[in-house]
Structure of Elongation factor P:
Amino acid sequence: MAGFIDTSEFHNNMKIEIDGEPFVIVEFQHVKPGKGSAFVRTKIRSLLSGRVLQPTLKSGEKVGKPDIEEKDMQYLYVQGDDYYFMDKRDFEQTFISEKALGDAKNFLKENIDATILFWNGKAIAVTLPNSVDLKVVKCDPGVRGDTVSGALKPATLETGFEVYVPLFINEGDVLKIDTRDGGKYLTRVATAG
C-alpha cells in the first residue's frame, strides 16, 4: 500500500485499496444528514474479481492508496491460458491470465496496443483502445431480397469472436468493433478483395 486517501478526495475511477484488495470507485455520494455525522455512500468494483461492493464510509475516514501502475504495452501471443504482452520501451514481457483478461480476449490480435494495469508488480487487468479493426473470417452471404430494415447476421472475426453485422458484410471485410460494451459492430473499414 502506498499511503492513504481521505474520503473527501474521492472521485470516479479513482483506485483505492480496502482490506488488501484494489478497487476502482464506480460512483460515490457525500451525504450530510440533519442529525448525525456525514458519510460517503460508495459503489466500488474489485480490480481482481470484478465483484461490486457498496460500502458506506464515515466522512473523513481514510482508505488505502494501492500500489498501482499503468504501462502501455503491445500484445504478442497466447500460450495456454496466458496472454503475453511486451513493454515497448524496455521490451520486458509479462502475461495476464485468460480469467483476468475477461472479454478483452475477444478483441486481441497480434501487435495491438493496450494499457496494462499492475498491482504490487503483478499484471491484473488490460484496457484496450475503444475500438479495434478486425477481419471477418466466416460469414454467410446476404440473401438477395432480404431487405428487412436493420436485419443482422452473425460473422466470425479473426479472433474467433462472433458479432452481429448488417447483411451487406462479407468474408474478408475489415470491421471497426467497439471493445467497451461486449463488442458491437461500428462500421466497415475495408471491403474484401
Q: What stands out?
A: Helices lie at 98-101. Residues 89 and 113 are 13 Å apart (CA to CA).
